[in-house]
Fold each of these.
Amino acid sequence: MCVTLTMRSQSSRLDILPDNLRYQIRQCTLKCPDYYMIARSLFYTKGFTDAEALANKLVGVLDYSRRILSENRQNEFGLRIMLTVVNWT
C-alpha cells in the first residue's frame, strides 16, 4: 500500500503535520518532473490504448498555456491540473 502526500513548496515544513503522520513518511522532492511520462502513465492506468499520443497532446497544451498566460498564482498548469484533466476523461 502506498499513500502519497503532496505539499506545496511554500508549506513544505514538516512541523505542520501531526507527529504520528510525520514519523511515518519519507520526504522526496521532484525538481523537474517529466510531465510526458507522468501523463502517459496516468492515461495507461485509465485504460487508454493511445496513451502516448494523448500524453503528448496534453503536455503540449499545458506547456503552451504556461508560456502564454501570465504568471499569476491562479494560473497553475502543473501536475494537479494534469491529474484533473485525466480524471475528467
Amino acid sequence: MSSGYVAGRWREVGRRRRDGHTRGVTTPEPGRGVDERLEAGILDLLEQRAHGATICPSEAARLVGSKDGWRDLMEPARKAAARLVATGDVEVTQGGEVVDPAAARGPIRIRPTARP
C-alpha cells in the first residue's frame, strides 16, 4: 500500500482550516483506532506540504486529539512515525539528519522518504 493511497483513503481524518488551525477527530470511529488515525494524519499532513517539508509529531497529535488532550498523543504519534519508517513511507530526522526513531531522544521531525 503506498502512502498516497493511505493518505487519500483517510483524508477525512482532518483538514487544515484557512487560519492554520486543524479540526481533530475527537469521537471514536468504528474500525479506526488512534494509531491508524495518527499514521493517516502524518501521511495526510505530509501530502499537504511542499516537497521535502517536514512535520512535527505534535501536528498529528493535534489533528487526531482533542483541544486539551493532544499532549497525551505525543508518544503514540512518535510510535506511529516509527511504524511508518518501518514501512518505508517516512524518515525521522533530528537536526536534518535521518535517525533511528527508537534511539531518538528529544524533538524529532518527520518527512516523506525520498523516492528514486
Amino acid sequence: MLRTIETSLWQPMRSGALAGMIATLPMTVFMLLMGRVLPKWQHYELPPEALTDEQAERAGVKEHMEKPERVTVALIAHVGYGAAMGTAYPLSAKNVSFPSIFKGIVFGLGV
C-alpha cells in the first residue's frame, strides 16, 4: 500500500520539483536579459529581488546584507519557488486533458 502511494504521488511530485527548478533557470536568464535590453525608464527591481528585499526588511536583516547577498538569496528563493510550484503541478494537471507540453507551459506562465 505504501509503495503504491509513493509511486502514484511522491514520484510525480519529486519530478515536478526538479522540473520546476530547471524551468526557473531560463525564466531567470530571460528576466536578466530583458533588464539589459529595456530602456532605462523601464528598469526596476525584479520581482524575486523585490520580494526578498521586503522580507529581509520585515525580518530586520536587510541592513546587514550587501547587494550581492540579497541577490543570491533572491535567486535561491526564486529557484525554491519554482520547485514548490513544480511540486504542485502534478496535483493540478492530472485532470486536464491537454498534451503535457501545453499543460506545463500554461502552468509555468500562470505561476
Amino acid sequence: MSTYFHEHQSIINLVYPLSSQSGNSTPDLLSSLLARVAPLFFSVSDVVVAAVSRQISLLLVGAIILSSVRQALRGVVRVSDVI
C-alpha cells in the first residue's frame, strides 16, 4: 500500500511541483495542505506549522522504513525456512 502512495506522490510532485517560500526545499503534499488548512482552524504561526509538518513527515518516513524492514525480514525467514 505504501508503494502506491509513493508512486502517486511522485507523480503529483512531478506534475505540480511545489516550492517553499524560502525556495530551499519542496514540501510534500501533506505539509502543503497542513500549511494551508491549519490557520483556518488554529491561530498558529508559520514556524509552528512548519515544525508540525516536519514531525508528521518524519513519522511517515519512519513508518515506511519499518514497513520495508518488516518485508525484508519476512523474505529472510522464508529463505531460511527453505534451506
